[in-house]
Amino acid sequence: MSPHNSTAATGTEPVAAVAGVSIRYGSTTVLDDVTLAFSAGVTGLLGPNGAGKSTLLSVLSTARRPGSGTLTVLGEQAPNGAAVRRLRQRIGVLPQSFGFYPAFTVLEFTEYAAWLRKVPSARRRQRAREALRLVEMEQYADRKMGALSGGMLRRVGIAQAMVNEPALVLLDEPTVGLDPAQRVGFRTLIQGLGERCAVVMSTHLAEDVAHVCDRVSVLLQGKVRFTGTVAELCALPGESPEVGGASVEAGYLHLAGSEAVTS
Ligand SMILES: Nc1ncnc2c1ncn2[C@@H]1O[C@H](COP(=O)(O)OP(=O)(O)OP(=O)(O)O)[C@@H](O)[C@H]1O
């Protein structure tokens, strides 16, 4: 099936773009000729486990150089050396899991993240407190990292991603493992981030995309199978026998077919 591509103009310049990006591990192609542009607001990367979402986020973050194709991010084309160092000060990343010293307090951990992102020392404490306020964790600033619940840890993970006031923030499966109430809270939080900076969020949950994203790209086995607005994804099939009615899930199943139902 050929990819569905929206031609609708977004009215904003892309914040990041990949063109013809492929990545292989040995004989396995993980990203296959991926061309995508990301603009302001929240963009979802929707796909099953192993589709290549984390790998694409690592390319956008400059952590991984594409085997072929080009990355343009925050105005830097095919960044290298000094450009990569500049970019890392302007990009925030929430990985699927992140390491920390359990004895650090929440504030110490967030300040440490600010140091890593080269926030000037005079501003580090203030920026850490602001980032913790943003994720409603300021009241836990003195709690040890090792004493946080999973949901709290995820919020601190977002705080560390926002501590350098990034222009682009990359969230890898931010709602995985959260209970339903926490997930609802996170959706509101992520929508708020989208008003401050461009957000790219990977997920395998159609519901997250429906509630949070302005735009969505569907990745299946390393290939882009759809890119457009959430409404355009919902409108793809009309309705799905599996889930009934037009929805993100129905649009996704229309693209993924039995691959998604059986995975
Ligand atoms: N360093 C690596 N060496 C070999 N294979 C890898 C490596 N990193 C990722 N892969 C493989 O690349 C494929 C894509 O992985 P990736 O983590 O990008 O997918 P994903 O869509 O983020 O999946 P998930 O939702 O499970 O995290 C998987 O098959 C994975 O096993």
Task: Tell me the total number of β-strands.
Answer: 11
Radius of gyration, taken over Cα atoms and rounded to an integer in Å:
18 Å
Query: Order of strands across the biggest sheet?
Result: 1-11-10-4-9-8-7
Helices and strands, in order, run as EEEEHEEHEHHHEHEHEEHHH
Strand content: 15-25%
Q: Sketch the major β-sheet.
A: 7 strands, mixed
Name given to the CATH architecture:
3-Layer(aba) Sandwich
The CATH homologous superfamily: P-loop containing nucleotide triphosphate hydrolases
Number of domains: 1
Principal-axis shape equals globular
The CA-CA distance between the termini, in Å, is 19 Å
CATH class: Alpha Beta
Assign the structural class, choosing from mainly alpha, mainly beta, alpha/beta, alpha+beta, or little secondary structure: alpha/beta
Overall mean pLDDT stands at 88
What would you call the quaternary organization?
single chain
CATH topology grouping:
Rossmann fold
Q: How many helical elements?
A: 10
Which spans have pLDDT < 50 for at least 5 consecutive residues?
5-11
Give the bound compounds.
adenosine-5'-triphosphate
